[in-house]
## 1
Amino acid sequence: MTNNNKTTRTTCPYCGVGCGVLATRHPDGTVSVAGDPDHPSNYGRLCSKGSALGETLSLEDRLLYPEISGKRATWNDALDLVARTFQEAVRDHGPESVAFYVSGQILTEDYYVANKLMKGFIGSANIDTNSRLCMASSVAGHRRAFGSDTVPGTYEDLELADLVVLVGSNLAWCHPVLFQRLEAAKAANPAMRVVVIDPRKTATCAIADLHLQLKPDTDVALFNGLLSFLAEADLVNDGYVKRFTEGFAAAVKAAGPCEIGQIAETTGLKRQDIALFYEMVARTEKTVTVYSQGVNQSVVGTDKVNAIVNTHLATGRIGKPGMGPFSVTGQPNAMGGREVGGLANMLASHMVLENAEHRRIVQDFWKSPAIAEKPGLKTVELFNAVRDGRIKALWIMATSPVDSLPDADGVAEALKACPFVVVSEVTRAADTVPYANVLLPAAAWGEKDGTVTNSERRISRQRAFLDLPGDVRPDWWQLSEVGSRMGYAEAFSYPGPAAIFREHAGLSGYRNEGSRDFDIGAYEDVADAGFDALEPFQWPQPADTQAAETRFFAEGGFYTETGQGQFVPVVFKAPRQTERRYPFVLNTGRIRDQWHTMTRTGKTPRLTAHFAEPFAEIHPLDAKRLKIAPADLVKVQSPHGSVLVRALITDRGGEGQVFVPMHWTDQLAFNARVDAVVAPATDPHSGQPGSKFTPVAVTKAPMAWFGFAVLRQRPAKIAADYWALAPVPGGYRLECAGRNEADFAELATSLGLADCETVEISDVAGGWFRQAQWKEDHLQTAFYFSASPVEVSRQWACSLLSEDALAPRDRASVLAGRVPADRPDPGALVCSCFQVGCNQIAEAARCGAESVNAIGETLKAGTNCGSCRSEIQTLLDDIAKESLDDANIAKAS
Ligand code: SF4
């Protein structure tokens, strides 16, 4: 394939917004990306992660050849071994003894083949996906209310609404382009109101008219109160409720009376804020409620979903422009996985495993020898079964469970004990790779070809624009080969993804006749050329229909047995109490510029500059009590495990809460895999872990020394009690610390270079040591060690590695660790695209740039991808508040 200078229309591989991307491959091998102006999800926008896609495509750390027991192997040998071992396990221990653990990163065609092989040919439903960790509670909630896993609305609804309620959703960081669409709509419609319901004051609050900072896991109490409020105030849409739904009275009874004082006590919210929220909902017909991981990742996640959906059914605000409950998915193809039955409790094409007729339909269509008859093991159960020996052969695709599953250390132990583990991966720099008996090199973004479905049911093409490197093969091919070698060649002889897509489309329409929501039968005969040229479209699109924007349930038409939408009686259950030993609630989540386990976003300095090391947000009052100062290191511990991370003292979260990002792995930090701390408690309906509520202890980690270094090369080994590494232009930056005083000297020696001019200064009494190494005028390494966290401008120090040559006076400032007067310290990075720091923004604000747009005009910050606009707004708000405080103090004195 030679695509030089050819632009390919494809789709971003990160979040569930599903932005269209134009990727252009240049003769020098580089790839530039831009937003696709014609894609209806993003209309040309890309966030910071999407904009940096071109910088993540290097072959560094790529897995290029199959390996058996750590040794390079041929595909033939590797596939034969996988097929034979799975077959033997099924023969000796039954179909329930094998399992696939797949991912919302794989394409629908990959997913389809995996599901078909497991459920239709092996005859077990032991295929689950990391989407279980992301939105399984929404699936369960949808199915309870609608009889199907249907997202009723579209992105446009957020723009058409007069009230957008964001529950457990940091849209600004986790779905940035959708947030930008909302922000633009709010700017264009001054009457629009935005309410954020979240225990943390996130970047999304920058556009909130009201932030309800409720206690963790009390959402059900708030939405049950809203349902009762609507019922008691006679604000229910009786016509809709009577014609299209069932169970209203039972749901209201379960919700209990609307006692705002009681709700305030339960949620920790002010009575007037609750009343204001209820009034806003009551008087705003066009209301959309968006919910995400803060709702789903809970042991009561499904109840939260239904408590929200109940309020929309009660008002009939569903499936109409600007109205509806709206689940936004974390991953690029979580929805595609749901469509093909990638969850252990689903059949293909949104059919139901427990439904004998559905099983018959699927088995007939596949002409398969078997069909799974009962739900398989959901993710946490699955790895428990691996641990206790019930699973004899496990195939993991495109995900790293030893990083992302709760009780992650227990998962690592389980994999160690499993007799046969296959890992299909893009990179060898993933923490799950060492546990594989067989490693299969998989195609990465830019090499794969197929489809993905975004949060608004829009199916888009991911197209290949790069050659497959080495012996890399796509996941669907690997699965088909194994299926064929297990004796099912006829069913798995796909020539390419277009054929799989046709079959998937055919199954969706097979004996459907409007009985099931998911139907893309219009594409069952699409030619290869038509598949290549496929435009983004929303499902459903049954045979003989044209692509159209669609919404569900405005006029009923639910997929329940009675055809009526179901109110689900939801009773509020008080969240688990924290214990004396574990008095804090750990919340985990995403940060703006990183994606999952950082195997791609962790490669580019542009994205690691925003947060270069793992951290724990701690409330100032908790920090004071625990004697934790800014930049100290803290240990966050549960009965399952612990992490050592940097303290970030902030009132973003409430007292007694601590937030740690989910991204860091052993590849870029030591002892920072936060899922080792997370409890494996799950929602009883969805099986989704409650990743946002683990009781933990937080303690200051005493260190004898702290270090910071910039290095040209990645060190092979870092001997320190704490370290975190991040790429910077021209090298790496290292944060480190140790418990033993002597260790820092050893570390400096081990990281230093042999053939350099070395200059060092130290102050034994002051407890600091600095060393710089030079080759002519080029800085090679600089180390700063001290007894307290190192105070050196990271932005400035990192920039020294990409300087052509440093003047003699700059040498002095390197050792002094002081930014020269003529090079102002830009401060912590805010805008990744233009590398603008907070000090620069503060200075511009002081000079009169008082709005985000004015900052953009002055510094360009926020004018490209726009992902930092909410942070700029927050900074400006803080600066304005500080000025006001100063003015008040001056007045008072
Ligand atoms: Fe990708 Fe960002 Fe769009 Fe999400 S919002 S799909 S991460 S560009």
## 2
Amino acid sequence: MVKKIIPVVDSYQERAVAVGVEIGKPKSDFTLEDSLNELCLLAQTAGIEVIATLTQRLEKPNPQTYIGAGKLEELKAIVNELGANIILFDDELSPRHLRELEKHFDENIRIIDRTALILDIFAQHAATREGALQVELAQYEYRLPRLTRAWTHLARQAGGGGGRAGSVGGVGLRGPGETQLEVDRRDIRRRIAHLKEELEKVKSHRRQYRRRRKKSGIPVVALIGYTNAGKSTLLNALSSANVYVADQLFATLDPTTRRVILPDRNEILLTDTVGFIQKLPTHLIAAFRATLEEIAEADVLLHVLDISQPTAQQQAQAVFQTLKEIEADHLPVFTVLNKIDLLKDPRQTINILEQYPNSVAISALKGLGIDDLMRKLEEFLFTRQHPLTLELPLRETYLFQLFSREGAVDKIEYSGNKIILQGKIPGRHLAKFTPYLYKFPEEKTALRELIP
Ligand code: GDP
Ligand code: MG
């Protein structure tokens, strides 16, 4: 099915036809159309206008051209008719699919997949050195297996095609019997090794910083959520900090931490993070591991959900899926329903609050519900005692002391080299004890439900 979109802005030079393919049964709750709509927003963020969309449902991808032969003809016709210069695939194309598809189109028509697009947006928005290094590494790792003569040629002509990460570094002295392509591959490999070393250094800095932060004893709350949910806006609202806020996907790439004083003068460190998105390629997650590790190191997660989105529930699921992947799904989650100012009927807020029983409704932009959120967050972290039962190894004397000091011990039982401990502890300490929860799976899930 082809859907033409009437251009809103005609100043775009990049005009794309977007192609969405559903292989087999739907793998997530995002429909083909939801995903394609999101791709259009991603494209817009990257300065590309999508002028038509094309969809297909397949049992399995065509081994050569990914889409079927008939669909390929349809695509060619629409690209010609509309004068598009980009074909944008909503999935990651294998190097082989990309090469085969390129054979069917003119050299001036670029074929880009979702991964390349997200990488490009990441590259545009990396603000710190670490962010820039991570994106560059991910870009090279993505490009290495996809390197073709044509690509190298174009990249060199364009003088590095699209920023730092596009240039191969000009070391290209050809060894005996080496082709240009081999030289390029060798350069890229060398660059990848160098980037990895640099990142390792940044990482050890970050570790030291984290250690210092831990010593301070101030609880760390990490803002998490789907991209564009309003995390940076909320950080601003809570801290009046001047963090970069933009109506773009992935405006924030690097974690920014601010100190926030709550109504009863308790302090927290609030950390902004990169947004999650469905179909975030695995090697991209790997590239951003250091950034994402910040999340796993937090004491509590503040999950921001854009409740004005029809796909809010699916977005929440994508967030929890990513948490699992970065092994941060043991942390207590506090849910914030954001953008209530966009709901047409105020009664909708009440309905939605009922759907998410443990949540606070706010508008980070209009400052609605912020006081309520601060009070409930403070209560959760500092005042309320959360009941739990632990199976604590005797060697964890530090944790035992912490529990006795900050919590309330109701019952204690010794069993071999373990203590079975029943009691209560304020929210800011919960995460430290989750690895030792008694009756593990149930309690672990129950923790998720702990909210203001
Ligand atoms: P992030 O990607 O989660 O950090 O999202 P941002 O904080 O950058 O916000 C994305 C967009 O949503 C920006 O245009 C914000 O102005 C807008 N936004 C954030 N919170 C609200 C809100 O409560 N109401 C409305 N209407 N817009 C909001
Ligand atoms: Mg942000």
